[in-house]
Amino acid sequence: MRAAISMIGARCRLAAQLSGGLMAIFSSLACADQSDALTELSMEELLGVQVYAASRFQQKTTEAPAAVTIITAADIRDFGYRTLADVLRSVRGIHLSYDRNYTYLGVRGFGRTGDYNGRVLLLVDGHRLNDPIYDTAAIGTEFPLDLDIVERVEVVRGPGSSVYGSNAFFGIVNVITRRGRDVAGVELAASVASFGTDQERLTWGGQGENGAEWLLSATRYRSAGQDHFYPEFGATANDLDRDHYDSLFGKLGLGPWTLTAAWTDRSKKIPTAAWDTVFNDPNHETNDASAYVDLAYSGPVRGGWELAGRVFYGHYSFDGDYPYIYSPGDPVTVNKDRVRASWWGGEVKLMRRYQQHTLVLGAEYQDNAQQDQANFDAAPYALYLDDRRTSTRGGVYLQDEMALASGWLLNAGLRYDDYSAVGSTLNPRLGLIWNPQPATTFKLLYGTAFRAPNAYELYYAVDPQKANPDVKPEKIRSYELVAEHSIAPDFRVGLSIYHNHIDDLVEQVVDPDDGLLVFRNSGAAEATGVEVEAERMWNGGRRLRASYAWQHAVDAVSDERLVNSPRHLLKFNYSAPLFASGWRGGTELLYTDDRATLAGGTAAGYWLANMTVVHERLVKNLIVSMSAYNLFNADYAFPGGPEHIHESGAALDQIPADGRSYRFKLQYRF
Amino acid sequence: MLVSLRKYLALLCGLLLAAPAVVDAEASVHGEYEVKAAFLYNFAKFIDWPPLDDAQFTVCVFGRDPFGRALDPIEGKTVGGKTVAVRRLERAAAMDLKTCRILFIATSEEAQVAHILELSRGSPMLTVGDTDGFARQGVMINFYLEQEKVRFEINPRAAAEVGIRPSAKLLQLGRIVDTAKN
Prior knowledge:
With 670 residues, chain A is mainly β. Chain A is 10% helix and 54% strand. Chain B has one domain: Rossmann fold. Helices cover 32% and strands 26% of the residues of chain B. Strand 1 (50-52) of chain A pairs parallel with strand 1 (29-31) of chain B, so a sheet runs across the interface.
């Protein structure tokens, strides 16, 4: 099989040599019949030919009532992405912060420090990952999947509450895992990287005679991390950047059924003395562990309806250890935060096409059987908080996509949600989609979305913070115009213009009556922006994606520019085969503009460049990949959250980012 | 910082310039639609066609054409002694469809697949697509990608309904799918 293909190559090179005396253009003309040679291949041979998929250009995304970006497994390989955060950083209109514990997403100019990405809904194969305590969308090393078992990541911008309910506030990130039959065997991967980092993975996937399909994967990650100097404390935090995780993922499919289970346990040392703790104390550590089981069904039912449904169980635990010296001269006391949450629920979605209509009806229910938060000192023991809650939430929705006159599509949706803790909310979405010609699409979109306050915002009460069970859901209204045009089937350009208005924004403020911190619906914000993007692929496998975003996000009360909101984002991703070697190179160049910090400073804009080379056929079944991250060794920092502003006055409002680092990775398939 | 940015940009320009020259050398990787075009030609050969009185063997593309120039190599080849001609259809009218022996239905026509299949029913024609769910809706062969390789589903019932018979080899290489019952 492989011989047949290299013969085409040989023929082609021969042609090139024959025309050696002529200009290069002749040799490329001589090679133009290379695709001609494809038609000479047998069907079995064709089944073995590797292609660069054009799936990103599928029509489907142009009909979605939103601007969608898809990052594929090929991008993950070509650009050496290590975490979901690496993937999202390359997506237009998204900026990131990392405070050396968690990674925070900023979307379209809005990146609230101190929230755990609760304003973005994170799904794995449609299963919701945001937990019912902090609403966390975990995108760093605490994300439960190894990126090697991800098939693609879909980023849907704009409000999605009319179908997805809470958290689909700025957008939805849906991670699709690989199918067992695509793995078809055992994969073993190992990598070593700078800062004392190593990662190992074992994956087994396949498909049986009866159609049953399975994927099992285990990953272990250990990183010593990078020591940084913190001028706020006049010292370097030594050996406090350690990051460890272990994760397991399993998926079993049979006919319309898919059973999934996932588990991850991640612990991180904290070098930043966040939450007013003692600087350079090795006790400072957090542990996040999450697990879920999900049984999904997707298939046709009677009467032309398609049914998709799932039942699920989830568990999340958090343990934070915070070293304090309560009064000068005292020994260090370790204060502990402990969170235990478990929930179960189900959802059902019915879809059918009926003449000009595509109807979707859905319902969702979740019982948060345990939402427990505790805070105590280990020794001497002192209990400060022991809050135990349960709650439920439910939602029903309806969406209709109507093909109006030729080339016009109207997408209308409405969802009603009810929360036992915070009441109900109704969210509509309207999208008018116009294809004046097959290659051109315009979308006019309007929608609202909400985020229900989480258990932490409602009930956490440890001095100097108090509870406020009266917080209501925050709301966003969004208007967007999208234009997309295909200059050629493999060359697409796009433009988005949007305006977002956020009301009843949940923010932590000081209650003037008692001086305590409390969450209230006191905020409001507005964001306006423009994004342009171009994507192109060439035969032979060169690919380019470039985008620019201009975003203007202000506090609607004070009219001041929001903290952690860059004005300009520029992204450039290019990958191509490198000479005749079989190596493939991928590089990205990402610019993030200045960001204001909480303490009134400015985190300077920076250019980040990453580069990866990968070879898939050096030895049969072996993939070799080498990456350099932060190639220029740019010295930059991220705006920190309120937990980094100390009562002592030390304002760690800029958290240093990693310098240049390297990774060497091998993957072998049995 | 600025110096290294300049170095990086110089390196990048090198890459951009080097890449076009090497594209042909990278012989084992092809455009998705070049490979799909080669498949279309193979399908034609592995179908047991009823006697046809067409002058040419016509391959039609309906909807937003994803092939571009990728179909050029199969134009002028022969199937059962007849020269292959490629036509891009403007509209789904029974009259236009009548001469197509292979009809590729693009993803853009997802909403009206049932209608197109209805119109195509009268004559021996192989319908092909590359959109999730097409085979179940009655398109005879539907491409999909697996590990960056082109695969196809085949719906023998849909083929039998218009009197064409895929060879045993086609059935063996494709994934068998049946029409969904409504």
